[in-house]
Write a structure and sequence with these properties.
mainly alpha; 4% strand; 7 helices; single chain
Length: 192
């Protein structure tokens, strides 16, 4: 799960969508208490029907952003196309006519994502290079992945019995079990 520094976990979505949402929210100021996007629970400053939307909860605002990003990435948007660069997106998402600086917006989004402003959002893959985080102080997720990255297929036709995530990047039952076991080990070591 992708984490927002100081704000906890984002609602469930693929890692690349969470990373893009966080980058847009950063550029929009939606992670800063007191800003308009923050106060309206609309961290990505999503427009609906020609005006900025307000949401009852921050999770609802994140989900609206995810929906917008999914449309952008899939070609389902009437405004954005999957092959548009971040610079091209900025011209519509943060237009100069509304008092924005599209170049700064594009640079901020690209910086958070670790890509160039002239690259499309589709260049963000599953979160790689996009600010996804594991707890590097413990290396916990990296350790679990290394331990359970073998095929582990029992030959029953169900695929890898030891897969931590499914094809959509969501944790499998085994993934949750591995995390629970790892956390139990950490608690046991800390208590010792």
């Amino acid at each position: 799960m992708y984490r927002r520094s100081g704000f906890g976990d984002l609602p469930a979505a693929p890692a690349n969508v969470q990373a893009i949402a966080t980058a847009i929210a950063t550029a929009e100021g939606g992670l800063t208490p007191g800003t308009f996007p923050y106060r309206t629970n609309n961290p990505c400053d999503v427009f609906v029907g020609g005006s900025t939307a307000g949401y009852a909860t921050m999770d609802a605002g994140w989900n609206a952003c995810y929906n917008q990003i999914n449309l952008m990435l899939s070609g389902g948007s009437s405004i954005y196309t999957p092959d548009e660069s971040i610079e091209d997106i900025a011209a519509s998402y943060a237009p100069a006519s509304a008092g924005n600086d599209p170049s700064t917006w594009a640079a901020n989004v690209a910086s958070v994502l670790g890509i160039s402003p002239n690259q499309p959002l589709t260049a963000v893959s599953g979160g790689s290079g996009a600010g996804t985080s594991t707890d590097s102080s413990t290396g916990f997720l990296d350790s679990i992945t290394a331990i359970f990255s073998g095929n582990g297929d029992s030959g029953d036709g169900t695929g890898s019995d030891f897969a931590l995530t499914d094809d959509s990047g969501n944790l499998t039952g085994f993934g949750w079990l591995a995390i629970a076991a790892g956390l139990g080990l950490v608690v046991w070591v800390a208590a010792s």
